[in-house]
Amino acid sequence: MAHLDQKRSHSRVDVYMKFLKDYTGKHIFQLDDKDVLNFLVFKDVNDSGKTVVHHRSCPNLGIANIKDCSDKDLCSKRHTANSMRIGIVQKLRKGFEEVGRRGPFVPSTCEGDPTNSVLVNEYIAFKHREQGEAGVAPKSARTMYRFKMDLLMENMRLTIKGKRGSLKLRLSERRAMYAYCFSAIKRLAGAGHVVSRNTYRMPNNAGLVFNCTWDKTLRMNTHCFGFKCVKNAEVWCAHCIIDEWVSLAKSFGFTFDRGLLFPRLNANGTINHEKRWTSKDLTDSLKRDLQRYHLFQGETPHSFRHGGTVDSLKKGKSLERTMYLAYMKNKSTAAIYSKGLRVLCTSGFQWEDAGIDVQEIQPEQLSLQMQSWKAFY
Asked: Which residues contact 353 (CB under 8 A, 6 or more apart)?
């Protein structure tokens, strides 16, 4: 548990600022724009990126690998310009702002925010031009559509019914994680960080509410979201599936008055307190579960967030409500995640086939209501 407490105390801002200081060997008040630029270049070429970028003169433009490229420096896997700007530069900017380094950077006095400098802005603009000439387009995860989700939930239910012991327990947990992420429009990796004591049950067992967001950044007590029980209206219900997982786990001696709602399990069915779900583990598990039922088409842990967004809009829920549930800050993000809806519409999808409209939870009432609700565990 000491390991988990330590992880909870560090946000991505803290992580990137530590990387920058370790890379340069300087204190935060000694850093300048050249240090930030060198760090960004290092991150761009150290194989941590996933996007293939060919040089504009490379004959292999348009190919998704670099194995046939003669110059592995000009053609390599990189970070997209937007990913670097949002994922790294903005995190560093927040770190500098937290210690009072705000405003445009002044090279002569080394005052201001080093990320807010001409040098850094020109580098991001260069990456945009470079990737534009290389024809790089942002890629999105394949959408986990509702019809496939229905098949996955039912097939896993039948499989779990025929299993015993730790295998039944592990399958039940993964099924609950999939249902949670699809219904709550969250990344699958985020499910592995949900604290059980921050999960509440609505009155009359009407649904579940979660009082925190564990995901790429740590946000405690800032985002209340949840979903109602729809067992009488839908073919499967995330609320009921999570309850099934909890009931089964309790029969194995688990308690939910502490720790995580979806802890990492050992092969023998015991909780591994030293390890959480990683992106690779989730990717491999999801692929195996989908392949077992011949449903795999390249889906990733991010596919549930895409699928949940599409399913919410498809059922007639407003864009504002969908964005709140998914914790999306702007409409451009929602547009990316709702691409799968346009695919359905252009492929002959009929709106009347969207299913039953489920009444939404009013987010502005959650914080007040939760004060009188019974804790989930």
From this structure: none
Could you write out the DSSP letters of every residue in 170-209?
Answer: HHHHHHHHHHHHHHHT--HHHHTT-BGGGEEEPGGG-EEE
pLDDT score of 271 more than 60: yes
Distance CA 229, CA 238 (A): 7
Report the pLDDT value the prediction gives residue 350, as an integer from 0 to 100.
Answer: 38
CA angle 216, 130, 44 (to 5 degrees): 40
How far apart CA 275 and CA 280 sit, in angstroms, is 13
Q: What is d(CA 354, CA 36) in angstroms, rounded to the nearest whole number?
A: 49
Report the alpha-carbon distance of residue 79 to residue 123 in Å, rounded: 13
Cβ contacts of residue 170 below 8 Å, gap of 6+?
Answer: 265, 269
H or E stretch at 350: none
Residue 224 DSSP SS3: strand
- 113 within 8 A of 33, measured Cβ to Cβ: no
Structure tokens at 262: 């979806």
Looking at every residue in the chain, the average pLDDT score rounds to 82
Give the pTM: 0.68
Q: Tokens at residue 124, please?
A: 């991001």
User: What percentage of the chain carries pLDDT values higher than 90?
Assistant: 40
**What is the per-residue pLDDT for 138?**
64
More confident residue, 113 or 340: 113
Q: How many CB atoms lie within 10 A of CB 374?
A: 10
Token pair listed for 62: 């348009």
Which residues, other chains included, contact 195 with Cβ-Cβ below 8 Å and sequence gap of 6+?
A: 212, 214, 259, 260, 261
AA identity, residue 116? N
**What is the DSSP-derived secondary structure letter of residue 225?**
E
pLDDT tens readout for residues 243-269: 999 999 999 999 998 889 999 999 998
Query: What is the token pair recorded at 283?
Result: 């990717």
